[in-house]
Amino acid sequence: MAVKLLITAAIIAVAVVLISYICFRIVFYAPRKEQPDPSVLPVPEGAEYEPYHDIMKKWIVQTRSMHHQDFYIKSFDGLTLHAKYFEVDKNAVTEIMFHGYRGSAERDLSGGVQRCFALGRNVLLIDQRTSGESEGNVITFGVNEHRDCLSWVDFACKHFGKDAQFVLTGISMGAATVLMAAGKPLPSNVKGVLFDCGFTSAKDIIKKCSRDMKLPADLLYPFIKLGAKLFGHFDVDEYSPMDAAESCTLPVIFFHGENDNFVPCCMSRKLYDICSCPKRLVTIKDADHGLCYVVDNKTYFNNVTEFFTQNGVPTKLLHDVM
Fold first, then answer.
1. CB 3.0–4.6 Å: which of 251, 266, 294, 299 could bond 311 by disulfide?
2. Is 245 helix (H, G, I), strand (E, B) or coil?
3. At residue 157, does pLDDT exceed 90?
4. What stretch of H or E contains 208?
5. Measuring CA to CA, which residue among 313, 311, 312, 315 is closest to residue 300?
């Protein structure tokens, strides 16, 4: 009887580990990609994005043609991280920009670079760990990425000087990343946060996507969490944007599309409600995930300009980019 129990326990343990590993590979693991074909202009797939592919490709071409500097730093866990710096004026505010889950800086934020130049802002465009020229093969939904953000802030303050001013900007998981960083102590150089279509927590968005795939989210999530622990060596529930929103004191402007079918708009509303810092929520009708700026750039520009000016970061629209 004891032997049978041991065999049964061993089979269960192996099954649990195997399921957790499969979950880890699907949710968190990012294999290193070959260098992209420079003739290819990466745009997001899906019918909701197709009407905007031409303008997205235009932004990528424009950004590729712009002069930039490459910067490299080491992460807290020894990875080499990469960013590109685009300068419009050395004395201007610099947006430190973070892209989304399994995205790339070029695909997700070339429009953001053009927006910043239209507003007279510099850009430090970050390759998140696992993407572009940054090392790593584990995506952690902001848990480790927000530590990378803190490292980039430290680098930027040292490199650009004591009088430099920064805004932390992110889209999708990048938005979660910068808000989580803003929940930690930051130097006074950081003046605000631009949060575009981010999620409330890794748990919330993973469960939502599991339900979308007709999977038993509540049953599956413990395996996903265990997979992160065993194979990714991090706790996916360690810290979240909801945790950060309670402690953030920086001004935060939230953007979210009302038709976002990936990260529901209600997630930004929840974060907005819990924040006690200076804040503004802007929802864009008919915008799907990551499309607020593309769908209604006038509203986007006007709110960025007004909100940051009201909160001590003078911002002025120099020209349109659409």
1. 251
2. helix
3. yes
4. helix 202-212
5. 315
pLDDT on residue 322: 66
Whole-structure pTM over 0.85, yes or no?
yes
* Angle subtended at Cα 303 by Cα 126 and Cα 113, rounded to the nearest 5 degrees: 25
Position of tokens 């339900």? 211
> Could you give the CA distance from residue 54 to residue 29 in angstroms, rounded to a whole number?
31
Residue 243 backbone dihedrals phi, psi, to 5 degrees? -60, -45
The number of beta carbons lying within 10 Å of the beta carbon of residue 103 is 21
Rounded distance, CA 193 to CA 271, Å? 13
Residues 204 and 237 sit within 8 Å (Cβ to Cβ): no
Cβ neighbours of residue 214 closer than 8 Å, sequence gap 6 or more: none
Closest by CA to 139, choosing from 107, 176, 194, 108, is 176
Q: What are phi and psi of 113, to 5 degrees?
A: -65, -45
Joined tokens for residue 24: 């880890």
At residue 36 the predicted structure's pLDDT band, cuts being 50, 70 and 90, is: low
Torsions phi, psi for 152 (to 5 deg)? -65, -35
Report the alpha-carbon distance of residue 179 to residue 176 in Å, rounded.
5
